[in-house]
Amino acid sequence: MQSGQMRWLMSYNHCLTLGGNETGLYLSVLSLFRFQHPPLLIPWPEISVSRRRMFFLNYVRLSLGHEAGIPLLLRPTIAERLRRAAGSHWPVEEVG
User: Fold this and answer.
1) Predicted confidence (pLDDT) per residue in 38-48, tens digit
2) What's the DSSP call for residue 91?
3) Where would a tag sit more exposed on the chain, N or C end, judged by fewer CB atoms within 10 A?
4) pLDDT band at residue 13, thresholds of 50, 70 and 90?
5) Which residues on adjacent β-strands are paired with residue 27?
6) What is the DSSP letter of 79?
7) How do the domains of the chain map onto residue ranges?
8) Which has the closest alpha carbon to 19: 8, 4, 34, 36?
9) Does domain 2-94 have CATH number 2.30.29?
10) How far is 24 from 37, CA to CA, in rounded Å?
C-alpha cells in the first residue's frame, strides 16, 4: 500500500499497488476504490522521469503517456524500488 499523487487534486494515500519489471509500470488502486480505476500496465517507453523539489520535499515525477503527460508524484524511495525492478528499461531521467 503506497501513496502517490496525480495532478494536483488526486491523492492516493496508502491505497496504491505499484510494481515494475522490464515491460513497464504496474499501477493499481485498492479494490475498495477501484470503480473507474482499472489496473494499468504502462510501458516504460511511454513514461518520462524527473526529480523535483516542492515545499522542502523531494519527489520523483513520472509523466505517464507522451501525449497526455499525466503526472504521478512518488517518494524517492518508491521510485528507486521501481527503477531497480525495471533495470535497464528505466527511462533516462530528465533534468528539471
Assistant:
1) 888 999 999 99
2) P
3) C
4) low
5) 18, 40
6) H
7) 2-94
8) 4
9) yes
10) 18
Grid cell digits, residue 31: 479494490
pLDDT attached to residue 53: 82
The three grid cell numbers given for residue 93, joined into one nine-digit string: 531521467
**Residue 46: which residues within 8 A CB-CB, separation 6 or more?**
24, 64, 65, 66
Average pLDDT along the chain: 82
What pLDDT score was predicted for residue 95? 73
Q: SS3 for 37?
A: coil
Mean pLDDT of 7-24: 74
**Entry pTM:** 0.79
Which residues, including other chains, have CB under 8 Å from residue 8's CB and lie 6 or more apart?
none
Residues facing residue 86 across a β-bridge: none
